[in-house]
Amino acid sequence: MPDLPNPETPAEASALRLMDCPNWVYLLREFDALYRYGSAGGSPAIRSHRKRVRDRLSAVLAANPAMVDRPRETKPVVAHFARALDLGERAAMQGMVRALREVKDDLTWEYGYEKVPKALAQKYAYCEVLGPRGPVQGTTLTLGFVLFAPNTTYPQHSHHDIEESYTSVSGAWSENNAAVFAPGSLILNTSGHEHRITTGDRDPCLLAYAWAGPAERLATPDMKLTAPRRARGAGV
Ligand SMILES: [Fe+2]
């Protein structure tokens, strides 16, 4: 039975605000640097996505929202997290990895599925850093990380009314069998674009992701899985 988040353990508003939590601020600044100084590779669509992400992130930082004290959750794939961080610290996204390491005991790892396929339950989970449910509250932007065990296939899916970018932090992966992405690479999935992820054989893969979309959609993403089981709630 998958270890699904317990709905009877609600997140609670904290007395702390974002600026009272430097480790979360520094992690968000790593996202800001990523979307501010990273290249768009000449793509107007990626350039405008980068701007949307950093503008929305800047607004959150300026608002200094109350932190949400979400219950800590772990998943089996988190057994690979230390290796992913170790590899990531040797590669292009080392600043992001170091900032992530400082909040690693405060993460809520989840599946985003009511019924996660059995094989995937051992090999995948994601955690949100910023979004409608916190820990840093934002309405039109979600930022987080997704972790895959070695040799994982994440089923084909798409996102309605959501622009999604993945940036490689650690490990190697492919989307739709089209390319191999190394740490620092970014890929944009526009609304409705079907995508399927596979990861390398020997090491875990850690991706940072951003979702930009309307508030009502980020609150209930209604992800469309092309696989037999439908997604419910969030997911990457
Ligand atoms: Fe996705």
UniProtKB/TrEMBL annotation:
Entries under Pfam families matching the protein: DMSP_lyase
GO MF term set: dimethylpropiothetin dethiomethylase activity
Transmembrane feature ranges: none
InterPro entries: DMSP_lyase, RmlC-like_jellyroll, RmlC_Cupin_sf
Source organism superkingdom: Bacteria
Name of protein: Dimethlysulfonioproprionate lyase DddL
